[in-house]
Amino acid sequence: MKKGILVVSFGTTHPDTRRLTIEAIERRIEKAFPDYSFYRAFTSGIIIKKMKEREGISVMTVRQALKAMHSDGIRDVVIQPTHVINGVENDKMREEAMELKGWFSSLKIGDALLTTGEDNRAVIQAVAEEYGDLKEKEALVFMGHGTTHYANAIYAALDYEMKDMGYKNMFLGTVEAYPSLTSIFRILKEGEYTRVCLAPFMIVAGDHAKNDLSGASEDSWYTRFLREGYEVRCVLKGLGEIPGIQELLAEHAKRARGYI
To answer: Could you say which of 103, 209, 220, 222 has the lowest number of CB atoms within 10 Å?
Structure first.
């Protein structure tokens, strides 16, 4: 029975971060499944369209990828998302996959990055090690995406767990939901921080990282922290660049298949 693995991402129109994040994760997962044919899909139709127009690169939707796998004779399928949370995009991916489940003898879906308590702790540990060079009186502030989906609660929970694990100088806010930057400001002022390191808590360092986080506009996080009197530096590194994150997503895929 022919086997295939499908890695599903939201996608990005920024080739620089795509190579360092999504493609790095794909390579790590592909390496973990040497006997499987590899396929890619994005869930953002807008990004798929822009990549075709700007770069001439065709990326399939989840439905298109599963149809291609079926046409190629694949009957044993593993789907692994690179989504950070079990939100709107992950729900959409699962719904599309379940509609076509009958085409395959086996279809397994791996968990999003932050699904279990064990995942949360592993991600916190991975980012803490990656940003272990903080200066004195410097806070590490992550920008998550945020969503109206109930799964947004994971961001506040993770921020709390960072402190519970001993990382008192790590903070997690969102650009579109709670915790907001206003919330982060109030908490930061309770400490003695004079410096801030800003970083995206997203798989890629794309539009949000380059504009909302580090941009020169009046409402970017970079500008707002400067106005509050902090010394600010930005590290535009998506979570997908971190080896520990890549490994965790590969483990999710292996667990879905029953390898671990």
So the answer is: 103
Enzyme catalytic residues: 145
| CA gap 111, 93 in Å, rounded | 12
Digit-coded pLDDT (tens) for 8-44:
999 999 999 999 999 999 999 999 999 999 999 999 9
Same fold, 2-114+241-257 and 117-239: yes
Q: How far is CA 132 from the centre of its chain?
A: 20
Task: Report CA torsion sign: 160, 90, 60, 29.
Answer: positive
Q: What is the pTM of this model?
A: 0.96
Q: Could you say which DSSP state residue 229 is in? A: T
Q: Residue 181: how many CB atoms within 10 A of its CB? A: 19
pLDDT class of 1 with cuts at 50, 70, 90: confident
The fold for domain 2-114+241-257 equals Rossmann fold (3.40.50)
CATH number of 117-239: 3.40.50.1400
What CA–CA distance (Å, rounded) separates 246 from 206? Answer: 18
Give backbone dihedrals phi and psi of 149, rounded to 5 degrees, phi first: -65, 145
**pLDDT digits over 66-91, tens only?**
999 999 999 999 999 999 999 999 99
| Domain-wise residue ranges, the chain | 2-114+241-257, 117-239
User: Tokens 């106005």, residue?
Assistant: 227
Is it true that the peptide bond before 179 is cis, omega within 30 degrees of 0? yes
Asked if 76 and 2 count as a contact pair (C-beta separation under 8 A), the reply is yes
Nearest to 260 by CA among 244, 245, 248: 248
3-state secondary structure of 39: strand
Q: How many residues does the chain have?
A: 260
